[in-house]
Amino acid sequence: xxxxxxxxxxxxxxxxxxxxxxxxxxxxxxxxxxxxxxxxxxxxxxxxxxxxxxxxxxxxxxxxxxxxxxxxxxxxxxxxxxxxxxxxxxxxxxxxxxxxxxxxxxxxxxxxxxxxxxxxxxxxxxxxxxxxxxxxxxxxxxxxxxxxxxxxxxxxxxxxxxxxxxxxxxxxxxxxxxxxxxxxxxxxxxxxxxxxxxxxxxxxxxxxxxxxxxxxxxxxxxxxxxxxxxxxxxxxxxxxxxxxxxxxxxxxxxxxxxxxxxxxxxxxxxxxxxxxxxxxxxxxxxxxxxxxxxxxxxxxxxxxxxxxxxxxxxxxxxxxxxxxxxxxxxxxxxxxxxxxxxxxxxxxxxxxxxxxxxxxxxxxxxxxxxxxxxxxxxxxxxxxxxxxxxxxxxxxxxxxxxxxxxxxxxxxxxxxxxxxxxxxxxx
Length: 427
Description:
Elements: H1 9-29, H2 33-54, H3 57-60, H4 67-86, H5 90-98, H6 104-140, H7 148-165, H8 170-199, H9 203-222, H10 260-278, H11 280-290, H12 292-297, H13 302-329, H14 340-350, H15 355-378, H16 383-397, H17 400-406, E1 413-414, E2 417-419
Antiparallel strand pairs: 1-2
């Protein structure tokens, strides 16, 4: 007998659904960038949790039967503190609703407390994103910029001098200071590119030496009252930046410190992507990075490309210093530039040299930075463990073959044929 019409539809639907899920599962098992990155972060979180637990005195001195519960408590407390310190604290949300009937000013204070962790994450991420772009953009042009530290200091010096030494109207003043920060960093980048173009000196060596030069130059400038040292002060610090040169805070002058510098960093990331992927100049820079000899044969000015890309990179790093000086610290001292220029290398590596990746990597590092005090005080997790967690994340993300081997991922198929291999900095 013939089957009634439509009797095979449920089976076909089940087969189609099963096929769809099979395709999704098979796609997830491929070693593509998204899968590898997610697995790397999850693996790093597990390894970091184990390190946090078994370096904690409470766990180390616990009785044999209590080791696992104590370890779990430490790991949970560590990651809860990480979440509360970098995104938001649920306790502040509860307090906000409880205080909804209070005056507006008090209510706004509680509202600011809710979003303050996210604000601190953005504040910490801003210079990392800008300095990370200063590494990622030259990387696409075949150059390795390790001079983010010197370029960041150059931007800080010039923007700070314009901020306290020049009087201008409020809007014009902050714009001039931001442009000055870009120029201050771009000069250092231009110098490294020009030396390479004219002499062939490797940019790694030149930028490393410039890092030392600028650090000692800053110390000298801050030790002389006739130069940058604050008059009447024995501390190595500049005068306070005029309020007209401050980067505006995004949510008023409340508890949240996030300012226009964060928007500037996002705009620069978009600009870097547009430059490298949507313009003729970007195509030439990438062509030079892929093969300088072939680019020269094609009529491209390789030396000019080196100078241009290093100048742009220096300006981006200089903006990172400007965000610190005009956005949060409002003065320059020997410590407020920190290790942003060095950390930028890690951020660019974690972001795989792409502007969007740099933004996400900068936010991740910013979250770890913002949460580290809470992790130390609430979970008794040493700040060194936070740094170890960051390093472990970079280790796994920067080594795709390791993740593929650990999870037995199949090679990504490129148009059905061959495999997509990970590339190094000079690939």
